[in-house]
Amino acid sequence: MAETKRTKFSTHSVFAWLFALLFLTLCAAILISTISTFVQFFFSSEIFYSENEIPEVIINAISNLIIALAMFELYVVIKINIHAEDQLVALHSLLESAPRFIIVVCAALALEGLVLVIKLIQDQKTEELLAPIAVIFSAATLLVALGVFLKICPHRIGLAEDSDDEPET
C-alpha cells in the first residue's frame, strides 16, 4: 500500500500532472482569447468590410483553434499515461490514444498549410508558396509514417495474439 502512494507522487507523475494542467490551461486561454477577439471584432466594426478583414480574422481564428485542439489532444494523451497502472496497460493505452493525437497534428499541419496558401494568395505573394507546400507534404509524410508504425507495431508488442482470441463472425 505504501508503494502505491509512493508511485502516485513520483517525479514522473508530478511532472506529467504539471504538463497536463499547463496544456489544458493554455488550450483554455487560446480558446477564450480567440472567442473574445472574434466577438470584439464583430461588435466594434462595420457590417461591410472593404479591406478583406473578415477572412484574416477567420483565418487567425482557425489557426488558433487548431493549435488549441492539438494542445487538448496532448493533454488527453498525458492524462491517459498518468492513469495507466502497469507498463503493458500504458503501452496499450498509448497505442490507442497516440495515433489520435498524431492524426490531429497531421490535420492541424495540413490546415495550417492550407491557411498559409490562402493567405499568401490573397496577399499576392505566390513566390512564397514553397513553405506551405512543404508543411502540407510534411503532414502527409507524418500520416504515412503513422500508418507504417501501426502496421508493424502490434506484431512487436504482442497485440496480434490478443486479436486472435476474439471470435470471428
Task: Characterise the protein shown here.
The chain has helices at about 1-10, 10-45, 55-85, 85-120, 130-155, 160-165. The chain has about 170 residues and is mostly helical. It has one domain (about 15-45, about 55-150). Helix 2 (about 10-45) runs antiparallel to helix 3. The longest helix has about 35 residues, at about 85-120. It is flat, with a radius of gyration of 21 Å. Residues about 1-5 have low confidence and may be disordered.
Q: Strand share of the residues?
A: under 5%
Question: What is the overall silhouette?
Answer: flat
**Major pleated sheet:** none
Number of helices in the DSSP assignment: 6
Number of strands: 0
Distance between the termini: 44 Å
Overall average pLDDT: 76
Low-pLDDT segments, ≥5 res: 1-7
Number of domains: 1
Order of helices and strands: HHHHHH
Q: Specify the structural class.
A: mainly alpha
Q: How large is the radius of gyration?
A: 21 Å
Task: Report helical residue fraction.
Answer: over 70%
Short description:
With 169 residues, this protein is mainly alpha-helical.
Topology overview:
Elements: H1 2-8, H2 11-44, H3 53-83, H4 87-122, H5 130-157, H6 159-164
Helix pairs in contact: 2-3, 3-4, 4-5
Keywords: Membrane, Transmembrane, Transmembrane helix
Protein name: Phosphate-starvation-inducible E
Transmembrane segments: 15-45, 57-78, 98-117, 129-150
